[in-house]
Write a structure and sequence with these properties.
737 residues; alpha+beta; 29-stranded mixed β-sheet; elongated
Length: 737
């Protein structure tokens, strides 16, 4: 016998039927270690009784066959059912003891149940009382009835920390993972296909996953269930790090079908609101902590998310700007769906043409089901960006071109999954960051972004407008440009600090890239002499490439015969520096480590070794930049270099800072007796278009303070006058002695 696609064996038995008399002897149906046995006599006599015995029967088969849907019970049942007076108007049915091992509801295991039931002739239903002994050592109770003639049920639950995973099918419109415990009293009632629930439930350690942003949230609070509605009031919501926000919302449904929901999250502080990995979304991913709120509403198949936040510390967001498609991977092992394999076996004995048509119908049906299950997300994200959050723009995932930046700006991000289209609007002003510049995998250098750079978004993220300046610092010898610098009286030495300046502007996909040179220690006359040599764009590009690749200037052709530099040594030291910097840079995301080796002579007698360190600590409030190294120079009294800057942001915007520094005095640059220079102070920064707008702002603040002072004095005068009036009134009321 086939029952729900499962073969059961029917053993020999005898059944005698005569009028209102049925005698069953040894009826036995079994499968593996499960069996159902029936023995006894059914008649209208009280003394005749039929016994139905179950042993390890899987209830999942029964409820799947009945297609009850939202009332899917499961477990392994063992027990006996007794029936008498079956041919009378008031039959007597009872179950003195039915034990269900690992009873489940909606595929969520609840515990072990002991059930007592009896047929109620008055209500024409099966009255059921059950005790569920849960894995946590507690017990929950069920009292109710099933009415098979009306395809309905009515149960009262008294739960004590029962597992709430049975609620997942009712919340699948916005979450795929629910866990936690529930205590309280509730009523489950309705037909087998249209079911509802009411009650007051206390949820403890309730945890659910918001699928679109891939975040888990937990709470412990009361949930109010009324017919067709679930309400949440002032629920304290926690993310996986324990940060808190407040949740209010509701879910409406029609017998747990056609759900609609609205959730409002407010008072979020350092709250995890986005946690999408690169594997989930290769084009845009990251972990964003926020301050602010969000509003989420939707129905099955569509979810609308509106967020208004400011970035909080430890936030990172990566956007891949390249449209390069990832190469597919070839697999030697292919895993097939067992259901599909069984389908192929099912059609193997049929006519190939008919089987092909049926197989095509099955696959189309499956595809349609998958398309119906796809949920469309629409997101509107208003972000007040600040230096607490880091933005990473990846220009070339393969080559490694990427920019890491922090800054300020107001951004609006719109995304709709139906067409997989993202739009970004706003301007992002960079305050700090770095740009990893690569050229044909030969030159790999980290440029430091200058404050004041910006990225403007006008819709298409790939069509953003760039206005970025970045600096790469190096020491180079001016004599490689022209030997006349060796006799320049304005120079104490020809080996000077040089800033290679990278300028990126225009459309992000086809930006205009130009280069320039800055010399922090040169006089104006010497600088003009350098620019007279580096006077063309072609010469500038050559100088930049040499500075990045070899840490030295390019020698013009007319100087080629007299140059004394050893290019082979420069290539070797630059290559070693680049490779070490690439390896050490992968050790930590919090620290930037960049070693550098330089030498102008082939015997390495003038070796310079530098190690640049930088980091943002204490939620990006403490900025550290250091340069430590060794110089093998005979003219210097101190061969050790220990330069560092430490800045602490006294306010969130960072315009007031406490700064301390230590500088190594290169005595070839400066005529100082001390080996180092230290300093400490407070920095104040204010951006303005012109001096008049700055003065107007200060004047406005002074006027505001004066108004506040005047209001305060007026308030004091008013209170004094009221006090005098009260005193006069008291004098009038109190009789004189």
């Amino acid at each position: 016998m086939v029952f729900n696609d499962t073969i059961w064996s029917v053993h020999p038995s005898s059944i005698n039927v005569h009028d209102k008399y049925v005698a069953v002897n040894g009826f036995d149906v079994s499968r593996d270690k499960q069996y159902i046995k029936i023995d006894g006599v059914a008649s209208d006599n009280d003394d005749d009784e039929v016994c139905l015995q179950l042993l390890d029967v899987n209830l999942d088969y029964i409820f799947e066959t009945l297609d009850i849907g939202n009332a899917m019970f499961g477990g392994i049942a063992t027990g006996k059912f007794y029936a008498s007076n079956l041919f009378s108007k008031e039959p007597h049915l009872r179950t003195p003891g039915l034990h269900v091992e690992r009873i489940s509801y909606n595929q969520a295991m609840l515990g072990n149940a002991d059930i007592v039931s009896e047929w109620d002739n008055a209500t024409r239903g099966v009255a059921i009382k059950a005790e569920i002994k849960q894995p946590n050592g507690r017990s929950s109770y069920i009292d109710g009835a099933i009415f098979p003639l009306n395809d309905s049920l009515d149960f009262h639950f008294s739960a004590d920390k029962i597992d709430v995973r049975f609620m997942r099918p009712f919340m699948e419109a916005f979450t795929s993972d629910v866990s936690g415990y529930a205590s309280g009293k509730a009523r489950l009632y309705g037909t087998f296909k249209y079911i509802d629930m009411v009650g007051e439930v206390y949820a403890e350690d309730l945890k659910l996953k918001l699928d679109f942003v891939n975040t888990y949230y937990s709470c412990t609070d009361s949930i109010h269930l009324t017919p067709g509605r679930i309400d949440f009031h002032d629920v304290v919501l926690k993310d996986i790090f324990g940060n808190k926000a407040q949740l209010n919302g509701w879910v409406t449904h029609e017998c747990f079908k056609k759900p609609r929901f609205e959730f409002r999250v407010t008072d979020a502080r350092n709250f995890l609101c986005f946690d999408v990995t690169e594997r989930i979304s290769p084009d845009w991913f990251g972990r964003i902590f926020c301050n602010g709120g969000a509003f989420v509403k939707g129905i099955p198949g569509f979810i609308d998310i509106n967020v208004n936040i400011s970035t909080a510390p430890n936030s990172t967001f990566t956007f891949v700007l390249s449209d390069t498609e990832a190469a597919g991977e070839y697999t030697f092992l292919t895993f097939r769906d067992r259901a599909e394999l069984e389908g192929d076996i099912k059609y193997a004995d049929e006519d190939p043409r008919i089987a092909a048509v049926k197989r095509l119908k099955d696959r189309l049906s499956k595809r349609n089901d998958e398309e119906e299950q796809a949920t469309v997300y629409r997101m509107n994200l208003q972000v007040a960006a600040n230096p607490d959050g880091e933005m990473i723009l990846v220009m070339d995932p393969i080559g490694g071109d990427r920019m890491r930046a922090r800054g300020n700006g107001n951004l609006r991000i719109e995304y709709e999954s139906a067409n997989d289209e993202m739009k970004m609007f706003g301007s992002y002003a960079l305050t700090q960051g770095s740009y990893n510049f690569t050229l044909q995998d030969i030159i790999i250098k980290d440029f430091t972004i200058k404050p004041g750079s910006s990225i403007a978004f006008h819709g298409d993220p790939l069509a953003a407008t760039l206005d970025i300046q970045a600096v790469y610092s190096v020491n180079a010898n001016l004599s490689d440009l022209d030997e006349s610098f060796l006799q320049d009286k304005d120079l104490n030495r020809t080996n000077v600090p040089v800033h290679a300046l990278l300028k990126v502007s225009g459309d992000m996909q086809q930006p205009d890239i130009s280069f320039d040179l800055e010399f922090p220690t040169l006089t104006q006359d010497t600088y003009r002499k350098v620019r007279s040599i580096v006077s063309t764009e072609d010469m500038m590009n050559r100088q930049i490439i040499y500075l990045l690749a070899l840490n030295r200037f390019y020698t013009p052709d007319y100087m080629g015969a007299t140059t004394k530099g050893n290019e082979l040594v420069s290539v070797a030291s630059s290559t070693i520096s680049s490779q070490l910097s690439s390896m050490l840079g992968q050790l930590s995301d919090n620290w930037s480590i960049a070693p550098n080796f330089r030498s102008d002579k082939g015997d390495f007698s003038d070796m310079e070794v530098d190690l640049a360190l930088s980091s943002y600590l204490l939620n990006n409030r403490l900025l550290f930049n250091g340069n430590f190294g060794y110089r093998d120079k005979a003219l210097n009294n101190n061969s050790f270099i220990g330069d560092f800057d430490i800045e602490y942001l006294l306010n969130k915007s960072g315009n007031i800072r406490l700064k301390a520094y230590n500088r190594y005095n290169d005595q070839n640059y400066y005529v100082k007796s001390a080996l180092t220079t230290q300093g400490v102070g407070i920095m104040f920064k204010r951006d303005f278009d012109n001096i008049f707008s700055f003065l107007r702002r200060l004047k406005k603040k002074d006027n505001d303070k004066a108004d506040d002072k005047k209001e305060s004095e007026d308030e004091k005068s008013r209170k004094l006058l009221e006090r005098e009036e009260v005193t006069d009134s008291l004098l009038m009321i109190v009789p004189r002695q």
